[in-house]
Design goal:
3-stranded antiparallel β-sheet, 7-stranded mixed β-sheet, disordered N terminus, alpha/beta
Amino acid sequence: MKFRYYIFLLLLLVFFSCEKVFMKKDSENSPKENFEYLWQTLDQRYSFFTYKGIDWDGIHDKYAPEVKEDMNDRELFEVLANMLNELRDGHVNLHSGSDVSHYWNWFLDYPSNYEASIVEANYLKDDYHISGPLLNTIIDSIGYIYCGSFSTAIKAGEIDYVIERFKDLKGVIIDVRNNGGGNLEGAMILASRFADTKRHTQDTYFKKGPGHDDFHLPVATYISPAGPQQFLKKVIVLSNRKCYSSTNQFVQTMRVMPHVVIMGDTTGGGGGTPISHELPNGWIFRYSSDMTVAPDGFNLEHGIPPDVVVSLKPADASQGIDTMIEKALDEMN
């Protein structure tokens, strides 16, 4: 009987121990715990609080009362997504497995300044070459490259082929409108074929502590010529508000070169490197972990203004004319 009694006590001990484990796990995965974990992680690691003038403590007090212990996943997702959108950062989002939050306002309040159908029908036409992600053709003795994404890495041989094709032309237009970014290495491979010498392009500030202004000293980034040859005659880069992230850095890299002109609209920005982190409930969130500035101290987060402002005119677009390409061609000629 004593043996059975001890077994019974052992089972009770195991049961209540397991219950404590499960209670602890449930507590860690509670809406409040996930909210606090998300808020605190960004409080210590997000890089643009001071630059954007964000009262993160005030945002905590705004959204904390909306978090209820009996809320479902969808309701929690909405609260967390709304809080993240207060950062006004396209690199900040939340993945729940069934939805992804995004901050879209970095381009919605601006004209699109790009009509793909016009470019395809009237400028690329049927005689363009496809060199990886680089669509390239020749318009009136001017080379034209359209790169709509850096998600597919640009291989050295692809851009070297284009440079060889364009080497005797008097100028090149690089159109990166609507390029939302992707592989930064590919963007720099493209830029290196237009570099005349080693040039300082930007400085990066990495976080070193939990304070909003705890940054290491800046780390400088440079661009240098690469490949068998470079194109060093006049280059015009066409940009608009959908040029984001690595495309933003591509435009910054190109603008330090004396033979390059940036034309169009201000880029979309995205000056921080995004990294991912996991909530206790398994959801993934992403945030900007550092801060990049131009050599003159200009912060790249909110976009790079063009040297020459040009917009796509509706009257031109209705006739199949791309105002920005035409302006670039005029400048070349």
